Amino acid sequence: MHTRLAGFLRCSVVALVTIGAASVSRGEAAASDTALRERLSTERRQVERDYAAQERECTQRFLVTACVDAAKAQRRDALKRLSTREAALDDAERTRRAAARQQHIDAKLERQMRDREERASAPLIPFDAASAAIRTPAARTPPRTPASTPSIDEAQRRADEQRSRTEYETRQRQVEARQQAAAQRQAQRAGSRKPPAAPLPPIEGASAP
To answer: With contact defined as beta carbons under 8 Å apart, do 88 and 37 qualify?
Structure first.
């Protein structure tokens, strides 16, 4: 464990020294670029001043147009050289920034890899049964199984059967009551009817036709 820790510390120190040296190098390069840019800016201003002086001098000559064209060409060439040097500075600065970003990413990945290796090589914590029992919550009482108590579906089925039986018996009693009432009404109607009149007896002594 102490050996791994010492190795980790050595790697960290080396990485910090490397990053610090790279930072110093980048700082020196940035300072040098800044000085160079200032010098290029000074040269650019000098080119513009020289062109203005040549243009004033051309106005005093006989061939003014040719003189001015020559001064413009000279100015254009000087500015082109300055622009080329500035573009080279820009490329170098972009390269340094990309290298700094990549170095930062590499250092981050290296730290993550070391952390994973440290976690993987860390000793396991011994299992303590007593503390595990304290941390483990008490087991809940298992629910009663359907075998010990009637299920809800069985009770519902029985209730439905009892309700159907009661409704059937009620309908039967209603049908019987209606039949009895109809029979009573029919009997009452039959009792209220009068018997037909008996035929009259024949008249005695009646002459035949």
So the answer is: no
Q: Which residue has the tokens 């930062």?
A: 104
Q: CA 102, CA 104: separation in Å to the nearest integer? A: 5
User: How far apart are alpha carbons 171 and 159 in whole angstroms?
Assistant: 19
- pLDDT digit string, tens, across residues 102-158: 999 999 999 999 888 888 887 766 655 555 555 555 555 555 555 545 567 888 888
Cα-based distances in Å from 167 to 156, 172, 173, 176, 179: 17, 9, 10, 14, 19
Total residues belonging to the chain: 209
DSSP of the chain: -HHHHHHHHHHHHHHHHHHHHHHHHHHHHHHHHHHHHHHHHHHHHHHHHHHHHHHHHHTTSS-HHHHHHHHHHHHHHHHHHHHHHHHHHHHHHHHHHHHHHHHHHHHHHHHHHHHHHHHHHSPPPPP-HHHHHHHSPPPPPPPPPTTTS--HHHHHHHHHHHHHHHHHHHHHHHHHHHHHHHHHHHHHHHHHSPPPPPPPPPPTTPPP-
The predicted model scores a pTM of 0.38
Task: Of 183, 186, 11, give the one whose Cα is nearest residue 111.
Answer: 11
The pLDDT tens digits of the residues spanning 2-52 come to: 444 445 445 554 554 454 544 546 667 777 888 888 999 999 999 999 999
Nearest residue to 79 via CA among 35, 47, 102, 37: 47
